[in-house]
Amino acid sequence: MEDIWKVSISTQRPGSEKRFPRYSAQSNKHSSPLEAMSSDYADNLTHDQWELLFPLLPDPKATGRPRTVDLYEVVNAILYVLTTGCAWSLLPKDFPPYSTVYDYFRQWKNDQTWKRVHDHLVEWVRVAEDRDPTPSAGALRECPVR
User: Fold this and answer.
1) 95: exposed, middle or buried (C-beta count within 10 Å: 0-12, 13-18, 19+)?
2) How far apart are CA 131 and CA 112, in angstroms?
3) In the chain, what are the domain boundaries?
4) Terminal CA-CA length for the chain
5) Nearest 5°: CA angle at 124, between 123 and 125?
6) Which ranges of 1-136 does DSSP label H, i.e. alpha helix?
7) Hey, which of 32, 60, 119, 135 would disulfide with 67, CB 3.0 to 4.6 Å?
8) Cα–Cα distance between 127 and 129 in angstroms, integer?
9) Backbone angles phi, psi at 121, to 5 degrees
10) What gap in Å lies between CA 146 and CA 143, rounded to an integer?
11) Looking at residue 29, what is its pLDDT?
């Protein structure tokens, strides 16, 4: 009778270990960032997008502890949080630890990395549309206040 009450609780669904392996420091030691990709989410960067974005990210610091996290996974985790609206602490276990991801997000916000990335992407889109890379004028519209 006591065996009825013994329930095995698993945090993973059967077969999910193949599709969604847990993140570990060893999982990011691949020749290509895309090989280290642990899962397929709709908001993950493509290889071409990553090649455009990677040079815009800051280099690792010359002093201190060496970087052990894959920036491709960090950027994908940030995009996941921003597109889904979930809390940082609810980031799926497929990604690096949420505290690490949030630290990179905050650091890049404070050192204007996100602004530089945005500005470069705007220029690239404008050039792709055969427009001047930087807008020369802006249009303001006045709305009446009632």
Assistant:
1) buried
2) 25
3) 29-57+68-131
4) 74
5) 90
6) 16-19, 47-53, 71-84, 98-110, 113-128
7) 60
8) 5
9) -65, -40
10) 9
11) 42
Structure token digits, residue 1: 């009778």
CA dihedral 117, 123, 129, 134 (to 10 degrees): 150
Question: How big is the chain, counted in residues?
Answer: 146
Six-digit token pair at 146? 């009632």
CA-to-CA distance for 76 and 67, rounded, in angstroms?
17
- What gap in Å lies between CA 111 and CA 117, rounded to an integer? 12
User: Identity (one letter) of the amino acid at 65?
Assistant: R
Q: What would you report as the CA-atom Rg of the chain, rounded to the nearest whole angstrom? A: 21
